Amino acid sequence: MTKIEDYAFLSDTQTGALVSREGSVDWLCFPRFDSGACFAALLGDAGNGRWKFTPRAAVTATRRRYRGDTLILETEMETAEGTVRLIDFMPPRGKAPDIVRIVEGVAGTVRIRMDLTIRFDYGQVVPWVRRHHGGLEAVAGPDALILRTDVETHGENLTTVAEFDVTAGARLPFVLTWFESHAPPPAAVNAEHALTQTEEYWAVWANRCCAEGEWREPVKRSLIALKGLTYAPTGGIVAALTTSLPEEIGGVRNWDYRYCWLRDATFTLIGLMNAGYLEEARAWREWLLRAVAGSPAQMQIMYGVRGERRLSEFELPWLSGYEDSQPVRVGNAASTQFQLDVYGEVLDSMYRAAQAGIKSSEADWRLQVALLDFLETKWELPDYGIWEMRGEPQHFTHSKMMAWVAFDRGVKLVEEYGCAAERHYERWKQLRDRIHQQVCELGYNEKKQAFTQIYGSDEMDASILMMPLVGFLPADDERVRNTVAAVERELVRDGFVLRYRTGEKNVDGLPGHEGVFLLCSFWLADCLHLIGRTEEARKLFERLLALQNDVGLLAEEYDPQAQRMLGNFPQAFSHVALVNTARILSEKM
């Protein structure tokens, strides 16, 4: 099984693919990020769909990179016969999504075998294949794919195969296009023209980046990954490209991350705006406002890429799971959970947008007022928390802290930007003070000398590291320093940070364990810098940067013992955190 870090990421900013170091597309959903996969070998085996090019002779060396500041992947495979280069990319979306693969001869003459196994509906449905419309069409139900190439192909055991020689200087294109099965396929794509257009698209986008400093290159690569995880028609950003990549190999902690979480808003907006991408930040903010529009009581913590609310969770029993990690899930039941912190994140994102000069309309402000009115009646309730626990609701310290953030930002929007709220302003200030007092009294464990996961608990939670980052308490407050020290004592493993301790006392309602959480490790670096331990913060940040794979991508988690990535990939939160930590560490204290 290919390790998670051995994949690279392609995107047309509406969907994406994972390509292994061995030249196999093992994950691809058409036409959207959350559509059914037509290549699902990532979560099963080759019989669940993949597209692979393999040299006949043994590969003695493999090198790969993204071409400049793009998501055009170049993979060189060296053999005794010669060297071949795969150029893989997804052109910015026209009428229909395409994935283009160009096989280029670099040296010698290399014999190549292509294996194309299409299985719609997450690797389950075998299509009907025919030659039609100048290509090879695969059709099943509502979906159809057409392969266009000048290379001769034939069928073997429900797989389309080809064998051909590629000599130095030759370039053989293969274009796979999705279309609705009841309609004719779109016009053929010229692979070379598409390559030029795709390179220009990414170059123009990357040139808008205004991030500077010693970490400019990893920051830019993370921003490109975030752009690749953006659903361009709406501005929504999915949490990751994949579903069910495990947080523990062989375990059950496997979730679908191909949706848009509200809590990503604060971090994503800050990252994009500070890098000069106001257009993307504005689109994300508008997606957010559309998604949460309606009754505040019906606001969800996540939505589909177009703002869909129904994300029912179910399992796919025909897939064995990544390295036998079952079940494989589609949808996410956490979408129906009550999570208090999202109100703080929504209001904070609106405040940050205002700071960047992105103005709200009167209707937008009325929606934010309605959210605060609703929160006023609900902030004292237990919830499922930032980590979407599958156990019982609790009074999570982080959740209450974020309720404070919501009212604090509401007050600041009135004070600093003149948002009209005469009837609410004084009450919001009083609520802000009341919540602050409660969190300090009930969230701080005097015996442990730290803010803990739950009111009255002895357990630590890395989400409390956000306290100085959101301005709840200053970094030089003794309680903040004590809490950082407690996190280091109890949650740091091999230099990185766990979200919380799993085991008998675990409140997440799940068996097993998980890896260190990269987002939380970036937070610790932020806090170390803010409390004056900048040298340690920089060392931790450099260790985190070293976890990136060879093309600059990060998953959600990492296993320090096995030295491998865990969780869905590439993970937006990890890349947002990298961007924001680079900014924080660049600021003088």
Provide a brief overview of the structure.
This protein is of the alpha+beta class.
Topology at a glance:
Blueprint: E1 7-11, E2 16-20, E3 24-29, E4 37-39, E5 50-55, E6 59-66, E7 73-79, E8 82-89, E9 98-117, H1 120-123, E10 128-132, E11 135-140, E12 143-148, E13 154-156, E14 159-167, E15 171-180, H2 191-207, H3 216-228, E16 230-231, E17 236-237, E18 260-261, H4 264-274, H5 278-292, E19 302-303, E20 314-315, E21 329-330, H6 341-355, H7 362-378, H8 397-417, H9 425-443, E22 444-445, E23 450-451, H10 478-490, E24 492-493, E25 496-497, E26 516-517, H11 518-530, H12 534-545, E27 557-559, E28 564-566, H13 572-586
Helix pairs in contact: 3-13, 4-5, 4-6, 4-13, 5-6, 6-8, 7-8, 8-9, 11-12, 11-13, 12-13
Mean pLDDT across residues: 94
Question: What is the CATH C level class of the largest domain, in words?
Answer: Mainly Alpha
Q: In terms of structural class, how would the helical and strand content be classed?
A: alpha+beta
Total DSSP helices = 13
The CATH architecture of the largest domain can be named as Alpha/alpha barrel
Radius of gyration over alpha carbons?
25 Å
Report helical residue fraction.
25-40%
Global morphology? globular
Count of discrete structural domains: 2
Question: How many β strands by DSSP?
Answer: 28
Strand content bin: 15-25%
Q: The CATH topology of the largest domain is what? A: Glycosyltransferase
- Low-confidence runs of at least 5 consecutive residues: none
> Span between N and C termini?
46 Å
What kind of sheet is the major sheet?
A: 15 strands, antiparallel
